[in-house]
Amino acid sequence: MSHKWVVVHSTAGQPQANLITSLLEAEGIPTQITQEGAGVAFGFTVGTLGIADILVPEAYEAQARSILDAMQSGALEDDKPYTDDTEKPG
After folding, report:
1. φ, ψ of residue 68 in degrees (nearest 5)
2. What is the DSSP code (8-state) at residue 42?
């Protein structure tokens, strides 16, 4: 069965796109990244050639946009202070 894929987000290059797709895939959403071939070959992260689009199947669009909205608003941030459990005693 073929899915219609829709763009849910655009980023500055593959590294940032990979982080976002990891978040969506952790929530069970299939993803694809597309970027202009020259941008990929030369590692561009700025300008038109640096734009990487994140696509999901149309059936997952609303769920993906909800997760991305939460990410952009900071709702997914962990406000707990970091503690190092490997600290030396006393």
Report:
1. -65, -40
2. H
Reference 42, options 83, 76, 14, 21; nearest CA is: 14
The domain that holds 69 is classified in CATH as 3.30.70.1530
Tokens 């980023």, residue located: 11
User: What is the residue range of 60's domain?
Assistant: 5-73
Say what the pLDDT of residue 55 is. 97
Among candidate residues 7, 5, 9, 10, the one with its CA nearest the CA of residue 45 = 10
> How do residues 6-39 score in pLDDT, each as one tens digit?
999 999 888 899 999 999 999 999 999 998 766 6
Classify residue 85: in a domain, yes or no.
no
Rounded to the nearest angstrom, the gap between the alpha carbon of residue 85 and the centroid of all alpha carbons in its chain is: 30
Instruction: Enter the pTM of the model.
Output: 0.74
Quick check: 3 and 59 in contact, CB under 8 A?
A: yes
Token output for 14: 């593959």
